[in-house]
Amino acid sequence: MILEELRLCRNHPGADEVYLRVMERLPRISLGTVYRNLELMVSQEIIRRLNSSSGQMRFDPVVEAHYHFHCSHCGKIEDIPFTVELPELDSSHPWVRERKIQGVRPDFFGLCPECADYAKTD
Ligand SMILES: [Zn+2]
Ligand SMILES: [Zn+2]
């Protein structure tokens, strides 16, 4: 049920937001239970944990590689809905050869449409 609610939230919610949604269906559940289940699903790679720019932990039900846009004003995290050309590391560089690079997760920052509008009229 926690996973279901997480999938219904389109905006990479934090644990408290998932908790509030699950509580509407299971009024006796505790924040600790929700949190433990989220952590468990992260460790089983069913969901992903994201760090928002505000330092708040967010959860993402999509584990396939995709990229995010963080609004620096309201803290919203959105998926980028189209393919982005990724930066690549020179695999012959000694620094790269010493490491096992598994992927890249670029994050884009700025203002979402609502916050950009707000900034204009302010
Ligand atoms: Zn915003
Ligand atoms: Zn995402």
How would you portray this structure in words?
The structure is a single chain. The protein has five helices and five strands. The protein has 122 residues and is an alpha+beta fold. It folds into two domains: 1-62, Arc Repressor Mutant, subunit A, CATH 1.10.10; 65-122, 2-Layer Sandwich (Dna Ligase, domain 1). Helix 2 (15-25) packs across helix 3 (31-43). The longest helix has 13 residues, at 31-43. It is flat, with a radius of gyration of 17 Å. The model has no long low-confidence stretch (mean pLDDT 90). One zinc ion binds next to loops.
Short structural summary:
The protein has 122 residues and is an alpha+beta fold. It has helices spanning 2-8, 15-25, 31-43, 94-97, 113-121; strands at residues 48-51, 57-60, 68-71, 77-79, 107-110.
List of distinct ligands in this structure: zinc ion
Structural class: alpha+beta
In round numbers, the mean pLDDT is 90
Rg, nearest Å: 17 Å
| CATH architectural arrangement of the largest domain | Orthogonal Bundle
How would you characterize the largest beta sheet? 3 strands, mixed
CATH homologous superfamily identity of the largest domain: Winged helix-like DNA-binding domain superfamily/Winged helix DNA-binding domain
Level-1 CATH class name of the largest domain: Mainly Alpha
Low-pLDDT segments: none
- Cα(first) to Cα(last) distance is 41 Å
Predict the CATH topology of the largest domain.
Answer: Arc Repressor Mutant, subunit A
The count of domains is 2
* Estimated helix fraction: 25-40%
Task: Specify the overall morphology.
Answer: flat
Series of secondary-structure elements, N-terminal to C-terminal: HHHEEEEHEH
